[in-house]
Design a protein that fits this description.
about 325 residues, alpha/beta, nine-stranded mixed β-sheet, 15 helices, binds NADPH dihydro-nicotinamide-adenine-dinucleotide phosphate, binds the ligand CC[C@](O)(C(C)=O)C(=O)O, binds magnesium ion, Ketol-acid reductoisomerase (NADP(+)), oxidoreductase, KARI_C, isomerase, magnesium
């Protein structure tokens, strides 16, 4: 069985006397910075001048500096800016100011695995990758819980990189839930596959297909929204708490029979075949090449897709229905 690391396997003392620069204050950045600070770690946030998050981070009680200044005065540098900006920022604002023995860290392996960033060999390079969105990394930390995370060491200059990665993982609350050691390759390929085929791409297309089918057949769009999107969270909560067994225990026998008989007609052999192709395109670098080039020409496809998705009727109906549920925060 895979070795799991928990609180008792990690020592926050390894971060004592070290300063951690969190570059970026978005989804992951704010969560890492605040969780580490609450765990007693000395944190500074690195941003660009004019960032909309500068004041927010300061209001959250953090010291904020320009990226290059944050790197200059830190020992551990965590890259939490968008994957597509990391190469440029690394070359300009990070690499020239990293000192021998520093640690360069990532929450996703894209830039290292696909050779966009090639670090100098006098630094540690490791990853602490939460398996969940940043806002949840913060929320569950405050609840005394954690988001499971992966660690990986790419370069071990100090001969202490793994211990340091575990200490960092403890600082953000990950060792409360469980940490697994992996490689940059395994994290990058599984993370990209998961978000494309299952968690983001798979789920949204499934919801839209269900919604469109019901609305197309003349049913009320509000009912279609509740059935296909709103209730998804309630079902997923049961999966999160107790796997398929708990969900199937809670739903009716009629739903459970429908689940067994119909699920495999929806996610069928063709779907599984397509999933394998998606994985291959990630493994052979085709997806990475496409995404890197798309960014070099200012995201024409990304922007067109984003606009089209916002025009789908599920967006408007969802906005109106959520307004009436005051406990759901945007
Ligand atoms: N989103 C997630 O939950 C997860 C993300 N990851 C990984 O974490 C990393 C960060 O992603 P994510 O948190 O989504 O990023 P976000 O887009 O949420 O946040 C990016 C942050 O970087 C800042 N930023 C952008 N450009 C620069 C720059 N040139 N110099 C300094 N700061 C800059 C942004 O500033 P401003 O606030 O002004 O826009 C923002 O604060 C990525 O590697 C991603 O793959 C891993 C696991 C989950
Ligand atoms: C599922 C998307 C993710 O991989 C994540 C939140 O883990 C991401 O890149 O944001
Ligand atoms: Mg992920
Ligand atoms: Mg991801």
């Amino acid at each position: 069985m895979t070795k799991m690391y928990y609180n008792q396997d990690a020592d926050l003392k390894l971060l004592e006397g070290k300063r951690v620069a969190i570059l970026g204050y978005g989804s992951q950045g704010h969560a890492h910075a605040l969780n580490l600070k609450d765990s007693g770690v000395d944190v500074v946030v690195g941003l660009y001048e004019g960032s909309k998050s500068w004041e927010k981070a300061e209001n959250d009680g953090l010291r904020v500096l320009k990226v290059s200044d944050a790197v200059k005065e830190s020992d551990v540098v965590m890259m939490l800016i968008p994957d597509t900006s990391q190469k440029e920022v690394y070359e300009r604002d990070v690499k020239p100011f990293l000192k021998e023995g520093n640690a360069l860290c990532f929450a996703h392996g894209f830039n290292i695995h696909f050779n966009q960033i090639v670090p100098d060999n006098c630094v540690d390079v490791f990853m602490v990758a939460p398996k969940g969105p940043g806002h949840l990394v913060r929320r569950v930390y405050l609840e005394g819980k954690g988001v499971p995370s992966l660690i990986a060491v790419y370069q071990d200059y100090s001969k202490k990189a793994k211990e340091l990665a575990l200490a960092y993982a403890k600082g953000i609350g990950a060792t409360r839930a469980g940490v697994i050691e992996t490689t940059f390759k395994e994290e990058t390929e599984t993370d990209l596959f998961g978000e494309q085929a299952v968690l983001c791409g798979g789920v949204t297309e499934l919801i839209k297909a269900g919604f469109d089918t019901l609305v197309g057949a003349g049913y009320q769009k509000e009912i279609a929204y509740f059935e296909c999107l709103h209730e998804m969270k309630l079902i997923v909560d049961l999966l999160y708490e107790g796997g398929f067994e708990r969900m199937r225990y809670s739903v009716s026998d009629t739903a459970e029979y429908g689940d067994y008989m119909v699920g495999r007609r929806i996610i069928n052999e063709d779907t599984r075949h397509e999933m394998k192709k998606v994985l291959e395109e990630i493994q052979n670098g085709e997806f990475a090449r496409e995404w890197i080039l798309e960014n070099q020409i200012n995201r024409p496809v990304f922007n067109a897709m984003k606009k089209r998705e916002l025009e789908h009727p599920i967006v408007e109906v969802g906005k109106n229905l959520r307004k009436m549920m005051s406990w759901i925060q945007e």
